[in-house]
Design brief:
alpha/beta, Rossmann fold, eight-stranded mixed beta sheet, two-stranded antiparallel sheet, 8 helices, 10 strands
Length: 231
């Protein structure tokens, strides 16, 4: 499989596949990297579709960055990437994981995408933040007063982030979308993902014994079959 490493708008990028008129942008989630797209590319590229992936801030070749893995930094970057892609490909689709799906919905709500494939998407980040506050025993008043609070489970709660999320709802999503959801997802409830599917042009598939991070051999087999079916 042909692979090209380069910088796109100053962002480390990798492109898989032979030249084509069609491409998928692969957006990784937290703790991911652009090379994570290789397994998806192994499915997509033989069908004549290229796959482009970039490292989000604080990930992959950009791990040295600090305080940049947030919506107000990532969304403008993704829009710059999309602007470039429009000059090179006629048909652009999206493949995104977890919070990468949330960032993508904010960035591409007005974009004319061919289709989108979401795996374990964060579809209601405000609800997730409020859930994390509950898990940590933190009230809104406390978060507002302190600005940031490090939780016992490793996440930093941020009043700025919560406020930004409320001011920028990800409701403007009209792209035909397929979602693969894990029945044991601890970050997004079934009710939330079903509500998202009902409100948007979405096909929902569920792996009942799957987890938010698809990583076991069985989970990866289900993921690959789902990707093949929905490309």
């Amino acid at each position: 499989m042909t692979t090209e490493q380069f910088e796109l708008c100053g962002i480390p990028a990798v492109l898989y596949g032979e030249p084509s008129e069609s491409v998928y942008l692969f957006v990784h989630g937290k703790l991911g990297c652009k090379e994570e797209a290789e397994t998806f590319a192994a499915i997509a590229c033989p069908t004549g579709i290229q796959v482009l992936a970039v490292d989000l801030p604080e990930h992959g070749a950009r791990k040295e960055m600090r305080d940049a893995f947030n919506a107000w930094t990532v969304v403008p970057e993704l829009r710059s990437v999309m602007a470039y892609m429009r000059t090179r490909w006629n048909e652009v689709s999206l493949r995104a994981n977890s919070i990468g799906a949330y960032f993508s919905m904010l960035a591409f709500g007005d974009a004319e995408l061919h289709k989108a494939l979401f795996v374990s998407p964060i579809v209601d980040i405000e609800k997730l933040i409020r859930d994390m506050m509950t898990w940590a025993g933190v009230t809104e008043a406390e978060l507002h007063e302190k600005g940031e609070i490090l939780t016992g489970f490793g996440e930093t709660l941020s009043w700025r982030y919560l406020s930004w999320v409320r001011e920028h709802p990800s409701e403007n999503w009209h792209c035909p979308t397929a979602v693969l959801y894990a029945g044991q997802d601890s970050l997004t409830s079934r009710e939330m993902v079903e509500a998202f599917a009902k409100a948007h042009d979405t096909t929902l598939s569920v792996m009942e014994n799957g987890e938010h991070w698809f990583h076991t051999p069985e989970q990866l087999q289900v993921l690959a079959a789902w990707e093949w079916e929905n490309i």
